[in-house]
Amino acid sequence: MKRNLFFILLATCLFVSCKKEASLQFIETPTPARSAGQTDVLQLTADPIPTVRVAFIGLGMRGPGAVDRMTHIDGVEIVALCDMVEENVKKVNRKLEEKGLPKALEFYGDENAWRKVTALPNVDLVYIATDWKHHAPIAIQAMKDGKHTAIEVPSALTMEDIWALINTSEQTRKHCIGLENCCYDFFELTTLNMVQHGLLGEIIHGEGAYIHGLQPYWDKYWENWRMDYNETHRGDLYPTHGLGPVCQAMNIHRGDKLNYLVSMDTKPIGNPAYIKEKTGRDVPNFRNGDHTCTLIYTENGKSILVEHNVTSPRPYNRMYQLTGTKGFANKYPVEGYALDQGEIDPEIASNHENLTAHRFVPQEVRAALMEKYKHPIVAEIEEKAKTVGGHGGMDFVMDYRLIYCLQNGLPLDMDVYDLAEWCCVIPLSEISLDNNSMPVQIPDFTRGAWNRLDKLTFAK
User: Is 363 exposed, middle or buried (0-12, 13-18, 19+ CB in 10 A)?
Assistant: First the structure.
């Protein structure tokens, strides 16, 4: 009896020891404490702004399109334009004048010219479309100067910048949104509506990607900033397009949270070869692999796969894929839904036999599903969005919703915690890769409020 008891105790000790050891087999990521009196900004609202006065900082590749889209939204005044390059500013201002709109204030020529813009008293929203490294510093100062901020993606590159954006938003009570346009594409919004109506059951796995050979575009980035960042950093450097819509469908920090990630990459070949071909320079220490895969595990036992590749000869792929307990949704290379016949409205499925989740529904069934579950936001603005454009209209939907919520004093569709969750993959995937693909903890950026809300909602 004593012998058996000894072995039971030994086995228990070994189990506890192994379990404790296993629990320590990830790299912890610190969470800074909130300052006294500071509270979260879940469902943050601010006073309505009937006419939103916007300043644009960064008028290279993305900024001019954003300015143009804003001219199609009622109740918007474009009051300031800022860029390092003088001609970029003047070109956009000429476009405003051609539309019969007032000329905006101009700021250019100095890397710190943006500080004059964030300090302007007649600005409500600072719209930031600079190179990546300036995103967070400008937004932080803009909020301190009393402005709401909208930041192109990725909105932050380091954990320090991510926490600084969160803390500044919480302290100033100013909105800070990452401009993730893919959350507003028509397929993603419609699929999200299907998910929220239970058509796909519980979503247990999602996949997202940014696979886009950038060889035709590398020389268009001001002073080579994007290639330079790939040369000096490793990991998924552009995760938000793929990750954002999946996190929305999974209600991340609205009932679930990201717990940890693991990343793997290939060796770098394509981009070093591109640099060698264009400049003759050898890059033996190029950091970023050609293809990076990051797997994320959530508190509720779900998984997300995110991929990044900006050099291989592959078709464009901005994957959006959801696996549910009752159905499946996929975008790129083929849009489609897979559902059993019993999960589809009889009116839609009546002319089709043997519908099965083992293959995509026929095209006419997919079209009928997308019409039935068309997201209210899409139904409201689809025609105008397609006319104005911006990646087929999703950019306009994003800007329209941002202005609508500010004008009506409503919570924004995406908050600073979304920004943090989607951007943290950049620094944390690098940590995982540099430590032989060890799991890396993802902080709860809400600091304890991740399950206060029960799902994603869009304010009306």
Answer: exposed
List, for residues 290-324, the tens digit of each pLDDT value: 999 999 999 999 999 999 999 999 999 999 999 99
Residue ranges of E strands in 349-393: none
In which residue are the tokens 């969750």 written? 421
Strand 52-57 relative to strand 76-83, pairing:
parallel
pLDDT at res. 347: 66
Average pLDDT, integer, range 26-42: 97
At 171 the three-state DSSP class reads: helix
Q: Residue 408 is which amino acid?
A: N
Residue 267, exposed/middle/buried by CB under 10 A (0-12, 13-18, 19+)?
exposed
Structure tokens of 184?
């507003």
**Residue type, position 206, single letter:** G
Structural domains in the chain plus CATH codes: 52-179 (3.40.50.720), 184-377+416-441 (3.30.360.10)
List of residues 6+ apart from 12 with CB closer than 8 A = none
Q: How confident is the model at residue 332 (pLDDT cuts 50, 70, 90)?
A: very high
CA-closest candidate to residue 287, choices 354, 347, 236, 224: 236
Nearest to 309 by CA among 292, 332, 331: 292
- The 105-108 sheet, strands edge to edge: 105-108, 76-83, 52-57, 125-128, 148-151, 176-178
Q: Are 448 and 170 in contact (CB under 8 A)?
A: no
* Cα(128)–Cα(151) distance, integer angstroms: 5
Residue whose pair of structure tokens reads 């609205």 in the numeric block: 254
- Give the 3-state secondary structure of residue 95: helix
